[in-house]
Amino acid sequence: MTVKEALYTYVVRIADDSLILGQRLAEWCGHGPILEEDIALTNISLDLIGQATNLFQYAVTLEDKGRTEDQLAFLRVDREYSNLLLVEQPNKDFGYTIARQFYFDAFRKLFFEALTNSEDTQLAAIAEKSLKETKYHLKHSSEWIIRLGDGTEESHQRIQEAVNFHWRFTHELFFQNEVDKTLIELGIGLDLATLFDDWKNYVSNVLQQATLELPSHSFKLEGGRTGMHSEHLGYLLAEMQYMQRAFPNLTW
Amino acid sequence: MSSKEWPLWEVFIRSKQGLSHKHVGSLRAADATMAIDNARDVYTRRSEGISIWVVESKMVSASDPKDSDAFFEPSEDKIYRHPTFYDVPDGISHM
Fold first, then answer.
1. Model confidence over A5-45: pLDDT tens digits?
2. What domains can you pick out in chain B, each with its CATH number?
3. d(CA A179, CA A168)
4. Which residues form the domain of A107?
5. CA torsion angle for A219, A223, A228, A233 (degrees, to 10)?
6. B38 → closest Cβ in A40, A136, A139
7. Which of A8, A42, A217, B21 is most exposed, with minimal Cβ within 10 Å?
8. With the C-alpha atoms ordered A167, A168, A169, A171, is the resulting torsion angle positive or negative?
9. Residue ranges of the alpha helices (H) in chain B?
10. What is the CATH number of the domain that holds A14?
11. What distance in Å separates the CA atoms of residue B10 and residue B22, rounded to the nearest whole number?
């Protein structure tokens, strides 16, 4: 694997996480529990899709096969997506959506912070821009974890259930393989293992404030990074890709 | 259900340095922190502001429309209170 191939894979991973989670959050449009939250969730969705756009634009220049960012976003098949299993999980309800977002944001903030020091200036610049957005996302999801956890008996029980459910996907946040190894040596990528303690501390602190239990089960699932997805991704892609498939090369 | 609704908050946004906060609307939130977060999402999506104030609507005291005659009409014929008889020198903006 050349450095360029590794970097392409690396950039597409980050882009896919943003794109798929952005699409999931967009499903809340018009369905938010209150108007204010409807707008908040779709704002975050647009931030994520914006990040994906920047990253895909960079990815196609690395790939150099004449593809466009839209082709990457909309015309791959499910096995070619490398997003985390966590971000493709269904919204289910507001609690599940927030728990998923919380684990992801807590990781993403640390990830982008560290990535601003990347030897790859383009990646560092995208990280810096995205970090500002991510800090707000994390504030938003953390506030909700606390409110729901420390809210009513029902909200406490339901957010605890959601936090427990998504825990099984958090292991994959720190997935690494030879792609990472290649880039870590060059100072382009970062060793995700170095983020784990900070991530766990942050998550534990917020859960504690929320009077919630840090999940203790050790059941882990992974596969998204290597294209082995849950059954949910196919349905998401069917909806997301519909326009490009039905009307090829559509633009607006 | 109404007793379970979150309180209403009035939102004030300052659009740029040097201008005052202006009332832009209202929203519902459980407390002040959430009200500011919601205001950020609802009212500053298009770079409308650099500062947000929120005030719980119940804290606002308002004049009574029934008093309008006594409150506001007397000023209508006091034209001399308006500084419209001065010549503004060239080059003075925002007047």
1. 999 999 999 999 999 999 999 999 999 999 999 999 999 99
2. 2-81 (3.10.20.520)
3. 23
4. 3-214+222-246
5. 70
6. A40
7. A217
8. positive
9. 32-43, 68-72
10. 1.20.1260.10
11. 10
Of A36, A139, A147, nearest to B38 by CB-CB distance is: A36
Which residues 27-46 in chain B show a CB within 8 A of chain A? 27-30, 33-34, 37-38, 40-42, 45
Interface of B with A in 61-80 (CB under 8 A): none
CB-based burial, A184-202: b 16+ in 10 Å, e otherwise: eeeebbbebeebbeebeeb
Distance CA B33, CA B9 (A): 11
**Count of the separate structural domains present in chain A:** 1
The helix or strand, by DSSP H or E, that contains position A106, with its residue range, turns out to be: helix A94-115
Burial of A90 (0-12, 13-18, 19+ CB in 10 A): middle
Q: Are A210 and A148 in contact (CB under 8 A)?
A: yes
Residue A252 within any structural domain of the chain: no
Could you tell me which of A71, A88, A67 has the C-alpha nearest to residue A23?
A88
Amino acid letter for position A183: L
Token output for A193: 């293992």
Q: Are B29 and A36 in contact (CB under 8 A)?
A: yes
pLDDT in tens, A77-123: 999 999 999 999 999 999 999 999 999 999 999 999 999 999 999 99
